[in-house]
Amino acid sequence: MKNWVRNNKGFLAFLILFGVFRTAVADWNPIPSASMHPNLLEGDVVLVNRLAFDLKVPLTDVVLAHLGEPHRGDIVTFRSPRDRTLLIKRVVALPGDVVEMRNERLYINGRGADYRMVEQSLDSVGGAAMRALQLAESWDGKGAQPRRHIQIMPDVMAPRTFGPVTVPQGEYLMLGDNRDNSADSRVIGLVPRKLLVGRAERVLVSADYQGNWMPRTERFGMSLYRQD
What we know:
16 strands, globular, 228 residues, mainly beta, four-stranded antiparallel beta sheet
Protein backbone atom coordinates (compact mmCIF):
# COMPACT_ATOMS: atom_id res chain seq x y z
CA MET A 1 0.00 0.00 0.00
CA LYS A 2 2.81 2.39 0.88
CA ASN A 3 4.47 1.73 -2.47
CA TRP A 4 1.19 2.35 -4.30
CA VAL A 5 0.69 5.66 -2.49
CA ARG A 6 4.29 6.68 -3.20
CA ASN A 7 3.91 5.85 -6.88
CA ASN A 8 0.61 7.69 -7.23
CA LYS A 9 1.20 10.80 -5.15
CA GLY A 10 0.46 13.13 -8.05
CA PHE A 11 -2.82 11.42 -8.87
CA LEU A 12 -3.90 11.41 -5.22
CA ALA A 13 -3.05 15.10 -4.87
CA PHE A 14 -5.14 15.80 -7.97
CA LEU A 15 -8.11 13.92 -6.50
CA ILE A 16 -7.86 15.83 -3.23
CA LEU A 17 -7.63 19.21 -4.96
CA PHE A 18 -10.46 18.25 -7.29
CA GLY A 19 -12.64 17.33 -4.32
CA VAL A 20 -11.81 20.59 -2.53
CA PHE A 21 -12.63 22.57 -5.69
CA ARG A 22 -16.00 20.89 -6.18
CA THR A 23 -17.07 21.16 -2.53
CA ALA A 24 -15.80 24.67 -1.77
CA VAL A 25 -15.41 26.70 -4.98
CA ALA A 26 -17.54 25.54 -7.92
CA ASP A 27 -19.53 22.51 -8.90
CA TRP A 28 -21.52 21.21 -11.84
CA ASN A 29 -24.88 19.56 -11.34
CA PRO A 30 -27.10 17.67 -13.79
CA ILE A 31 -30.78 18.60 -13.96
CA PRO A 32 -32.81 15.45 -13.19
CA SER A 33 -36.41 16.71 -13.34
CA ALA A 34 -38.87 19.05 -15.06
CA SER A 35 -39.38 21.36 -12.06
CA MET A 36 -37.48 24.27 -13.66
CA HIS A 37 -39.05 24.15 -17.13
CA PRO A 38 -38.87 26.12 -19.37
CA ASN A 39 -35.49 27.51 -18.24
CA LEU A 40 -33.72 24.29 -17.27
CA LEU A 41 -34.24 21.00 -19.06
CA GLU A 42 -33.50 17.42 -18.09
CA GLY A 43 -30.02 16.72 -19.41
CA ASP A 44 -28.67 20.22 -18.73
CA VAL A 45 -25.53 20.37 -16.60
CA VAL A 46 -25.30 23.68 -14.74
CA LEU A 47 -22.29 25.49 -13.28
CA VAL A 48 -22.82 26.34 -9.60
CA ASN A 49 -20.80 29.04 -7.84
CA ARG A 50 -20.29 27.70 -4.31
CA LEU A 51 -18.65 30.95 -3.19
CA ALA A 52 -21.70 33.07 -4.04
CA PHE A 53 -23.02 33.03 -0.47
CA ASP A 54 -20.64 31.32 1.96
CA LEU A 55 -17.07 30.09 2.33
CA LYS A 56 -17.27 26.62 3.84
CA VAL A 57 -14.77 24.10 5.11
CA PRO A 58 -14.27 21.68 2.19
CA LEU A 59 -16.35 18.50 2.38
CA THR A 60 -18.49 19.96 5.19
CA ASP A 61 -21.33 22.45 5.74
CA VAL A 62 -19.28 24.42 8.29
CA VAL A 63 -19.42 28.12 7.32
CA LEU A 64 -16.21 30.11 7.70
CA ALA A 65 -17.49 33.42 6.30
CA HIS A 66 -20.53 34.96 4.61
CA LEU A 67 -19.50 36.19 1.15
CA GLY A 68 -22.80 37.38 -0.29
CA GLU A 69 -26.57 37.35 -0.01
CA PRO A 70 -29.14 35.59 -2.17
CA HIS A 71 -31.33 37.89 -4.28
CA ARG A 72 -34.88 37.42 -5.47
CA GLY A 73 -34.71 35.69 -8.79
CA ASP A 74 -31.47 33.78 -8.12
CA ILE A 75 -31.46 30.13 -9.15
CA VAL A 76 -29.81 28.27 -6.30
CA THR A 77 -28.89 24.75 -5.26
CA PHE A 78 -29.63 23.74 -1.69
CA ARG A 79 -30.25 20.77 0.57
CA SER A 80 -33.91 20.00 1.18
CA PRO A 81 -34.91 20.74 4.79
CA ARG A 82 -36.99 17.59 4.61
CA ASP A 83 -34.46 14.93 3.59
CA ARG A 84 -31.25 16.77 2.55
CA THR A 85 -31.72 15.90 -1.14
CA LEU A 86 -29.86 18.33 -3.40
CA LEU A 87 -32.43 20.54 -5.16
CA ILE A 88 -32.34 23.47 -7.58
CA LYS A 89 -35.07 26.14 -7.45
CA ARG A 90 -35.49 29.90 -7.72
CA VAL A 91 -35.36 32.26 -4.74
CA VAL A 92 -38.74 34.00 -4.73
CA ALA A 93 -38.91 35.60 -1.28
CA LEU A 94 -36.23 36.85 1.14
CA PRO A 95 -36.20 37.18 4.94
CA GLY A 96 -38.86 39.70 5.98
CA ASP A 97 -40.86 39.42 2.75
CA VAL A 98 -44.58 38.77 2.83
CA VAL A 99 -45.39 36.37 0.02
CA GLU A 100 -48.58 34.81 -1.24
CA MET A 101 -50.01 33.21 -4.34
CA ARG A 102 -53.58 33.70 -5.51
CA ASN A 103 -54.68 31.38 -8.29
CA GLU A 104 -51.14 31.25 -9.77
CA ARG A 105 -50.44 35.00 -9.42
CA LEU A 106 -47.50 35.70 -7.14
CA TYR A 107 -47.51 38.64 -4.69
CA ILE A 108 -44.42 39.95 -2.89
CA ASN A 109 -44.99 42.56 -0.16
CA GLY A 110 -48.42 43.33 -1.59
CA ARG A 111 -47.21 43.85 -5.16
CA GLY A 112 -48.58 41.41 -7.69
CA ALA A 113 -46.59 40.10 -10.63
CA ASP A 114 -47.66 40.82 -14.20
CA TYR A 115 -47.87 38.03 -16.76
CA ARG A 116 -47.62 37.91 -20.54
CA MET A 117 -48.27 34.83 -22.66
CA VAL A 118 -45.15 33.62 -24.46
CA GLU A 119 -45.99 30.19 -25.81
CA GLN A 120 -48.43 27.31 -25.49
CA SER A 121 -47.09 23.77 -25.82
CA LEU A 122 -47.27 20.28 -24.32
CA ASP A 123 -45.21 18.93 -21.43
CA SER A 124 -45.09 15.51 -19.84
CA VAL A 125 -46.32 14.74 -16.32
CA GLY A 126 -46.14 11.12 -15.25
CA GLY A 127 -45.76 10.07 -18.86
CA ALA A 128 -48.88 11.92 -20.01
CA ALA A 129 -48.77 14.92 -22.34
CA MET A 130 -50.39 17.94 -20.67
CA ARG A 131 -51.12 21.47 -21.79
CA ALA A 132 -48.36 23.89 -20.74
CA LEU A 133 -48.42 27.69 -20.86
CA GLN A 134 -45.16 29.61 -20.81
CA LEU A 135 -45.53 33.09 -19.31
CA ALA A 136 -43.21 36.06 -18.81
CA GLU A 137 -43.45 37.03 -15.12
CA SER A 138 -42.39 40.55 -14.14
CA TRP A 139 -42.82 43.30 -11.56
CA ASP A 140 -43.04 47.04 -12.13
CA GLY A 141 -41.30 49.65 -10.04
CA LYS A 142 -37.88 50.39 -8.62
CA GLY A 143 -35.98 47.37 -7.42
CA ALA A 144 -38.33 44.99 -9.23
CA GLN A 145 -37.19 41.47 -9.96
CA PRO A 146 -35.95 40.80 -13.49
CA ARG A 147 -38.44 39.37 -15.96
CA ARG A 148 -38.30 35.59 -16.26
CA HIS A 149 -40.22 32.86 -18.01
CA ILE A 150 -42.27 30.44 -15.96
CA GLN A 151 -44.59 27.61 -16.89
CA ILE A 152 -48.05 26.73 -15.63
CA MET A 153 -50.04 23.60 -16.40
CA PRO A 154 -53.75 24.31 -15.94
CA ASP A 155 -54.84 20.66 -16.14
CA VAL A 156 -52.52 19.46 -13.34
CA MET A 157 -53.66 19.32 -9.72
CA ALA A 158 -51.33 21.74 -7.91
CA PRO A 159 -51.22 24.19 -4.96
CA ARG A 160 -52.02 27.42 -6.81
CA THR A 161 -52.96 29.48 -3.76
CA PHE A 162 -51.11 29.89 -0.45
CA GLY A 163 -50.26 32.49 2.17
CA PRO A 164 -49.76 35.20 3.00
CA VAL A 165 -46.55 33.99 4.65
CA THR A 166 -43.93 36.20 6.30
CA VAL A 167 -40.49 34.73 5.67
CA PRO A 168 -38.47 34.57 8.95
CA GLN A 169 -34.94 35.87 9.24
CA GLY A 170 -32.37 33.43 7.90
CA GLU A 171 -34.83 31.60 5.66
CA TYR A 172 -35.91 31.74 2.00
CA LEU A 173 -38.95 30.74 -0.01
CA MET A 174 -38.14 28.74 -3.14
CA LEU A 175 -40.34 27.96 -6.13
CA GLY A 176 -39.73 25.95 -9.26
CA ASP A 177 -40.24 27.82 -12.53
CA ASN A 178 -42.53 24.96 -13.58
CA ARG A 179 -45.03 26.17 -11.00
CA ASP A 180 -47.53 23.32 -11.23
CA ASN A 181 -44.95 20.50 -11.33
CA SER A 182 -42.44 21.34 -8.61
CA ALA A 183 -41.90 20.05 -5.06
CA ASP A 184 -40.69 23.38 -3.68
CA SER A 185 -41.35 25.44 -0.53
CA ARG A 186 -45.05 24.68 -0.88
CA VAL A 187 -44.10 21.06 -0.11
CA ILE A 188 -40.77 21.06 1.74
CA GLY A 189 -41.16 24.35 3.62
CA LEU A 190 -38.89 27.37 3.86
CA VAL A 191 -35.15 26.84 3.35
CA PRO A 192 -32.65 27.94 6.04
CA ARG A 193 -29.56 29.76 4.81
CA LYS A 194 -27.28 27.06 6.20
CA LEU A 195 -28.70 24.63 3.62
CA LEU A 196 -27.83 26.82 0.63
CA VAL A 197 -25.08 25.36 -1.54
CA GLY A 198 -24.52 27.91 -4.29
CA ARG A 199 -25.84 30.05 -7.14
CA ALA A 200 -26.40 28.42 -10.51
CA GLU A 201 -24.82 30.61 -13.20
CA ARG A 202 -25.12 28.98 -16.61
CA VAL A 203 -25.62 25.77 -18.54
CA LEU A 204 -22.27 24.12 -19.23
CA VAL A 205 -23.43 21.37 -21.58
CA SER A 206 -26.75 19.78 -22.47
CA ALA A 207 -27.97 16.57 -24.10
CA ASP A 208 -31.42 15.19 -24.84
CA TYR A 209 -31.07 12.11 -22.67
CA GLN A 210 -34.82 11.44 -22.77
CA GLY A 211 -34.71 11.27 -26.55
CA ASN A 212 -31.81 10.48 -28.85
CA TRP A 213 -28.95 11.72 -26.61
CA MET A 214 -28.03 14.35 -29.18
CA PRO A 215 -26.13 17.35 -27.76
CA ARG A 216 -28.20 20.54 -27.52
CA THR A 217 -25.33 22.77 -28.60
CA GLU A 218 -27.49 25.90 -28.61
CA ARG A 219 -27.64 25.59 -24.80
CA PHE A 220 -23.87 25.22 -24.24
CA GLY A 221 -22.66 28.14 -22.10
CA MET A 222 -26.15 29.67 -21.87
CA SER A 223 -26.61 32.19 -19.04
CA LEU A 224 -29.50 31.49 -16.68
CA TYR A 225 -30.26 35.19 -16.26
CA ARG A 226 -31.07 36.42 -19.74
CA GLN A 227 -33.78 39.07 -19.92
CA ASP A 228 -36.14 39.64 -22.84
